[in-house]
Amino acid sequence: MENGLNNWLISAGLLSCILGLIHSVLGEYLIFHTKREKGDLIPKKIDAGLKARQLGIIWATWHIVSVFGIAIGIILIRMGMMENFLNHRTFLLQLSPLGWSMFVSAFLVLAATKGKHPGWVVLLIIGILIHLGI
Predict the structure, then answer these.
(1) pLDDT of the chain along its 134 residues, tens only?
(2) How far apart are CA 75 and CA 109, in angstroms?
(3) Which residues 6+ apart lie within 8 Å of 116 measured at CB?
(4) Structural domain count, the chain
(5) Residue range(s) defining the domain that contains residue 85
(6) Is residue 2 part of a domain?
(7) Residue 117 located in a structural domain
(8) Where would you tag: which of 8, 9, 81, 127 has the fewest CB atoms within 10 A of its CB?
(9) Which of helix, strand or coil describes residue 7?
(10) Distance (Å, rounded) from C-alpha 106 to C-alpha 69?
C-alpha cells in the first residue's frame, strides 16, 4: 500500500462500477429494447404470461442492481483512498459483508446460468479483491 492507498479496494470499486454500467447498457440492448414502444422509457410490450406492470418492475429491478453496483463501487473506491484505512475497525467490519455478498451473488449467477453468464466471474473477482483489501 503506497501513499495510504488500498489498491485492492480501489480495483474492486472500479470493477464494480464498470460491471454496473455494463449491466444496464447490455440489459437495455439485449433484453428491454424489443419490449418498449417507440418513445417510451419503461418497456410495456408483454410476452405470454407476463403483465405490463410486471415487466415494468423487472426493468426497474434490473437497473436498481446496476445502481447498487455503482454505489458499492464508489464506497469501495472511497474506502481504498482513505488515509490509515486499516486503523478504522468500523470500516473493516463493513467490508466483509460486501465481499461475502459478492461471493453469494457470483454463486447465484453461476447456478442460475450454469456458468454461461460471465457476470459470475466478475462478481467473484470483486469479492476476492475486497477480501484481499481487508
Answers:
(1) 456 788 999 999 999 999 999 999 999 999 888 888 888 888 888 877 788 888 899 999 999 999 999 999 999 999 888 876 656 667 777 889 999 999 999 999 999 999 999 999 999 999 999 999 88
(2) 23
(3) none
(4) 1
(5) 7-133
(6) no
(7) yes
(8) 81
(9) helix
(10) 13
Match 446496476 to its residue by C-alpha cell. 66
Q: Is residue 17 part of a domain?
A: yes
Sequence letter at residue 19: L
Note whether residue 1 is domain-resident. Answer: no
63: its cell numbers: 437497473
**For residue 121, what is its C-alpha cell?**
466471474
Residue type, 95: L
> Please, which residues have CB within 8 angstroms of residue 31's CB and are 6 or more apart in sequence?
62
Which pTM value belongs to this model?
0.86
